[in-house]
Amino acid sequence: MTTIISNSKNKDIQEKYNLVCENLSTFDTGLWSELHHFITNHPGKTTKYHIKHYKNHKFTVDSFEYLLNQINRNRNTFHGIGPFVKKNGNWYCKSKTKYDLISIIDYQQKEIDRLKGVLHEMHLM
Fold first, then answer.
1. Interval 9-68: pLDDT, tens
2. Distance in angstroms (rounded) separating the CA atoms of residues 33 and 80
3. Which of 35, 69, 92, 113 is the most exposed place for a label (fewest CB within 10 A)?
């Protein structure tokens, strides 16, 4: 297990960082872009929402927030990923590329079609 040396000598804080490192050690770096698109396509969602619905890794609350904070602080390392902003407990992607906007539109169109189907089944349309 990788140990992150923090400025704190607090054993509880160090153990928390060790658990975060253990969780993130199994996250495939090839999925960074996919995580970026997942967060971009689900703006305004909480950390708990993202860790519940993201299927390619089982984040913990601490590991998810730690990773996003690392992405934000190390922009050259994570070029093209993020940055992410947490406002009122909800996450947003600060930069959107043309691909991100198309992806959002596609996602919203699928959701509209799904809701139309629900209304149709209820004989309201």
1. 778 888 888 899 899 999 988 898 899 989 988 889 999 999 999 999 999 999 999 999
2. 8
3. 113
| Residue whose entry in the numeric block shows the structure tokens 């704190």 | 8
Cβ partners under 8 Å of residue 106, min gap 6: none
- The residue type at 15: E
If one counts the domains in the chain, the total is 1
Give yes or no for a cis peptide into 83 (omega within 30° of 0): yes
Q: Is residue 84 included in any domain, yes or no?
A: yes
Summarised one tens digit per residue, pLDDT across range 82-98 is 899 999 999 988 876 66
Range of the domain at 43: 11-94
50 vs 42: CA distance, rounded Å: 8
Whole-structure pTM value: 0.70
Cβ-based burial of 68 (10 A; exposed 0-12, middle 13-18, buried ≥19):
buried
